[in-house]
Amino acid sequence: YKRMSKEEAQEILDEDSPYTILGLKYGASREEIKAAYRRLAVKWHPDHNIGNEEYCKVMFQKINAAYTILK
């Protein structure tokens, strides 16, 4: 397992804001960021969404990228 760099994360997000991806307001606390990440990671994990794995994989990558930038 290789951790994602902030540059790789920004490339995945492209034009999307990490706050928008995680459903947060600008300036959210670390606790809010972590809670939003965990909630969305479970919701969009490809193993939990049988039949929709490809879309969930993309969303899961965006969620991880957003968290990488904001943590």
Which descriptors apply to this entry?
4 helices, 65% helix, globular
Report on the structure:
This protein has 71 residues and is mostly helical. The chain is built from four helices and no strands. The chain has helices at residues 6-13, 18-22, 30-44, 53-70. Helix 1 (6-13) packs across helix 4 (53-70) and helix 3 (30-44) packs antiparallel against helix 4 (53-70). The radius of gyration is 12 Å and the shape is globular.
Q: Main sheet?
A: none
H-E string: HHHH
Termini Cα gap: 19 Å
Helix content: 55-70%
Shape descriptor reads globular
Structural classification: mainly alpha
Helix count from the secondary structure assignment:
4
Report low-confidence residues grouped into runs of 5 or more.
Answer: none
Report the C-alpha radius of gyration, rounded: 12 Å
Q: Mean pLDDT, as a whole number?
A: 91
Number of strands: 0
Share of residues in strands: under 5%
Précis, in short:
With 71 residues, this protein is mostly helical. It has four helices and no strands. Helix content is 65%, strand content 0%.
Topology, pairings included?
Layout: H1 6-13, H2 18-22, H3 30-44, H4 53-70
Helix pairs in contact: 1-4, 3-4
